[in-house]
Amino acid sequence: xxxxxxxxxxxxxxxxxxxxxxxxxxxxxxxxxxxxxxxxxxxxxxxxxxxxxxxxxxxxxxxxxxxxxxxxxxxxxxxxxxxxxxxxxxxxxxxxxxxxxxxxxxxxxxxxxxxxxxxxxxxxxxxxxxxxxxxxxxxxxxxxxxxxxxxxxxxxxxxxxxxxxxxxxxxxxxxxxxxxxxxxxxxxxxxxxxxxxxxxxxxxxxxxxxxxxxxxxxxxxxxxxxxxxxxxxxxxxxxxxxxxxxxxxxxxxxxxxxxxxxxxxxxxxxxxxxxxxxxxxxxxxxxxxxxxxxxxxxxxxxxxxxxxxxxxxxxxxxxxxxxxxxxxxxxxxxxxxxxxxxxxxxxxxxxxxxxxxxxxxxxxxxxxxxxxxxxxxxxxxxxxxxxxxxxxxxxxxxxx
Length: 400
Known about the structure:
It is a single chain. The chain has two domains: 147 residues, Aspartate Aminotransferase, domain 1; 223 residues, Type I PLP-dependent aspartate aminotransferase-like (Major domain) (Aspartate Aminotransferase, domain 2, 3-Layer(aba) Sandwich). The chain is an alpha/beta fold. Helix content is 39%, strand content 14%. The termini are far apart. The protein is built from 13 helices and 14 strands. Its cofactor is pyridoxal 5'-phosphate. It is an enzyme of class 2 (transferase). Its EC number is 2.6.1.-.
């Protein structure tokens, strides 16, 4: 009798974590590696947030808390939704988890039965389909290519919905493409969803504060109030507040769903770190002025990376509306051979050869469900980005 569960055969380890770990190992061995794989801001957590965590320690706030979040944090989250998204929630409609990933996972575990389908626009964050599989559901990927700027069209959404569809996972701005849906684009999708009352919406708003130029962020329940009672609006402090390691995510939705998610959490991790929760209260309630400064930095980096990658032979790099990723198309490189003798027959082969021959670590597009592409995270210094993009240019120029 096999010891490892059959469930594990349905999923794979996170490719983004694998690339990041590989880059760390190579660096530790003395290699000159520039890692562009991690979706993690290079800024430090703001001082006022760190001070709030220290106060929590000094005040002895180091015990177990309520399973799905302290009252102070739930109240802060309610104020955030009202202030920034024109969405009204009560504390019993809020859940707090150990990072945004846990809130998504809890919701899927609490709602999916065998045969239930979950629509996921591709390219997608690598964890979406695997979490659906772990929960016993069936992921339904819908490819959204460069011709639609990696965005799902209403016709595609309509065609993907079946009587078995339970969830539609929506992520704007997107990981891995940075593509953001305008209000009118999102309204066209919500119009489709209004015709299918069995379909719930899981909106992953993690990159809400990282939008550029004159782009306006909007969330599904904000655009279409008719979806409020079947939308789980998910967010967290990781990206905007540079708190990735603090592991605090949250979500808002109908009371029945929030209770079910709490039941899952009570039998898995129990409460998130008490100290991190008090830090998150300060993040949401405290000064927000640094968000605009960080956004300016990311926008400058986006413009640098898009410009340099579009100068690389065989690459096409769309200019995204938000997040801190670009997702260049490498169609012009497929079928060629690298200067080191590697055959570039896929985006995975491209990323492998790029790392081995130039020391630049990126994540191949197949991991996100759409090829031939690769993802660059530009959440690192301008100097590192300029050097990495120069190496990519040389690598592409050397393809024969």
